[in-house]
Amino acid sequence: MKLFEVLNGTAKVFLKTRDEHCPPHVHIGHRGEGWEAKIGFSYVDDTVSVMEIYPSRGRPTLATMNAAMAEIVANLTDCRSKWLKVVPDLDLNNKWVQISADGKVRLLRQKTKKAVRIQSASYDPGTCVVTLRMQDGFEHKVVAGSGEVE
To answer: What is the distance of C-alpha 87 from the center of its chain?
Structure first.
């Protein structure tokens, strides 16, 4: 499923519609140069990361990847909503978070003091709100991208 074009139309950002799996990610394909990259994203914060680039030779330059990733960040709302149409999973279940007094969510790599575990999570593409149902019975609503990832 094509999402949009990047790099002045020379590459496309897309989701595979078969056998796609977590964590949430999109693909960038550049036919002219013959490479494809997998770019991960989160529903908690607005950072993106390179998960994989193939083939191993003929890779894009760092400047090219930075430019493409900046365009993905600018279109994260679309990436998030389309991901859920293909893989209805935010990849947040059973993750540990700390929630500050002002409601800011910080996704943790492991359990720490005052951490709570997410039982389930959902995303409303219309409002860009992530609803976290915690194992302690509480529910927290946050705007997608407004949190932090450790």
So the answer is: 12
Domain residues for 28? 2-86
Q: Tell me, yes or no, whether 11 and 74 share the same domain.
A: yes
Does residue 91 sit within a domain?
no
Number of independent structural domains in the chain: 2
- The tens-digit pLDDT sequence of the chain (150 residues) is 999 999 999 999 999 999 999 999 999 999 889 999 999 999 999 999 999 999 977 889 999 999 999 999 999 999 999 999 999 999 999 999 999 988 899 999 999 998 999 999 999 999 999 999 999 999 999 999 999 987
Q: How far is CA 97 from CA 34, 94, 108, 137, in A?
A: 39, 10, 5, 14
- Statement to judge: residues 40 and 64 lie in one domain: yes
Same domain, 15 and 81: yes
